[in-house]
Write a structure and sequence with these properties.
9 helices; four-stranded antiparallel beta sheet; alpha+beta; 3 domains
Length: 293
Amino acid sequence: MDIMHHTAIGFAGAMALTALGHPLASAAFLTASILPDADVAYMLKSKRAYLKAHQSVTHSIPVGAAVGVLMGTLATHQFGIAQGAAVSAAFFASFVIHVLLDASNTLGTWLLWPFGRRLRLDAVFFIDAISWALTASTLLALWCTGQAWPFAAYIAAMAGQILLRAGLASRARSASCYPIAIPDPLIPWRYSLTRIEQDGSASFATWSALSGISNEGHTAAPSPEALKLAAQSIAVADMSAFARALVVVEERREDGLLKVVMRDIAMRRMGGRYGEVTLSKSEDGEINEQINI
């Protein structure tokens, strides 16, 4: 999910804890709802560094547990054991909510970093209308009632719809024989399907629980020269670590030199250029790379 949505969820949890009489834990909950996305700081180093680190170390449940214990220990020294325990529990609960919500979408989260691998359910899009509607209605209910129960109901409703839509994604894959099914951001029963073919091209379609498969299409097979250029690119190797369907979408020659555009056509297909890398080779053989994320 996007940072604005995580912040809204943080405010909802903070309102619930305030209603229960835990203002310090409320602040810890809000902090943890945002903190995992601090990995955007890797962009200051380079986009490649960000690609490698995004939703890994700062989204690791063991790391979140360690930070929660540290915050609880500091709070204990200042405010006593009860307050310290509340701070630790609130921080860890918010952290887990953040990383599990990120794991529910298409990029996935390295939940047990440095062990294991990324988990992604492909249940909801990273900006999702149904999820936002649940969050907005919960904030309104918390504001109107001044009680904590709407947030508990919200967690149950959010978990339920994510599991239901993860089941729909599995059904889309099995019914269509496409291995990748990306949820639609607006219509919860519709998925974008993608399959990489042996020649390096990609097939794509739309699947709906109501009408089945439609809008089938195919990208052109890349040339051997384009594939060779992609195989030599460090940026492509980095992006391939999390990309779902990184394929050549454009080849052209400029001043006699090949220019190749590759894009992850599966992950965040909203008409933008997210997950795109442009490659070209200079006359002296140096590969030029431009990453858009």
